[in-house]
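Ligand: WQD. Inputs:
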Amino acid sequence: MPKGKVLITGGAGYIGAHTAVALFEAGYEPLVLDNFSNTLPSAIDAIRQLTFDGLKVYETDCCDYQALEEVYLNEKPVGVIHFAAFKAVGESVRLPLKYYKNNLMSLANVLELSVKHSIKNLVFSSSCTVYGQPEHLPVHEGSPILPAESPYGNTKQIGEEMVRDAVQSGAPLAAISLRYFNPVGAHPSSKLGELPLGTPNNLVPFITQTVAGWRDQLTVFGDDYPTPDGTCIRDYIHVCDLAEAHVAAIKTLEKAEDSYSGVDYINIGTGRGHSVLEVIHAFEDTTGHKLNYQIGPRRPGDVTAVFADTTKSKKALGWSPKYSMEEALVHAWNWQKTLKK
Ligand code: WQD
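Predicted complex:
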């Protein structure tokens, strides 16, 4: 007996696609909705191979209220996971209004339609960027929210507030904002992974593309930070573990159906911090490939170190990550090897 339909906005993107697979494996029917502005239709073939041929896909923009309402009317899902958003930090500094318009309007539509059509359970993609550079590590959910470093980060902060206010208005809505740390890796089958269009901003795709010969050299952004080896520290979480956290969030909201009507914030990380040089050396050791890299200047906006306190994710969701960073790097490399330039 299927557990019900879950609408995944941005379902053809990196995290959304892995979440579609995880939901299917957990017995739900994933409904993929995407406007394909930053992902390739080939992701759908891969999701279908890992789920079922009949997977429903809506080519819809969440900013188009009427088109989105059609999907709500057709499907009556048990929950919505809202990933659809622009996510390039640097671009958001150059084109802030593009980010505010798209990310906030799409969320407003999702919230309004969820209330209108009595779809109570909502999971919102938030980010550890809401913590800025925390004074104390690891960061927990009650740590101060600092002014955002970029318009992108600000859309996540405002997004959390929009979700909170909608829930607290008394609407029949319950929501969990998941604050992701650094998602990395790929599906172990190598059918799904991260495919940034153009030059990658993020560390792991830049490493795999450099080793594959797509890029000449990786620049390590600064080795003069106050950390043991001078490079920045992050909490790298396998994308499949992150996908499972969404399944756990939907189950938690469903279970609490009658007793719970609220809003919650949960860190999704491993609880371990790794420096940039540790990631590079782990990649070299596990794959046997040398990476051509140089040390360069700091990247503006980077925080020195951030990693998650995972107490709440374990307790509230009953979730913990299964994969190590090394396994994530091997999966990212196996995925890279399937790609053609
Ligand atoms: C990781 C580390 C870089 C590239 C990103 C998003 C952010 C958030 C989490 C979701 C940093 C260093 C990188 C390179 C390098 N999540 N680096 N050379 O910036 O921690 O955060 O994921 O919303 O919004 O931006 O991730 O992968 O870019 O960087 O030295 O070529 O690797 O300085 O220390 P970041 P990243």
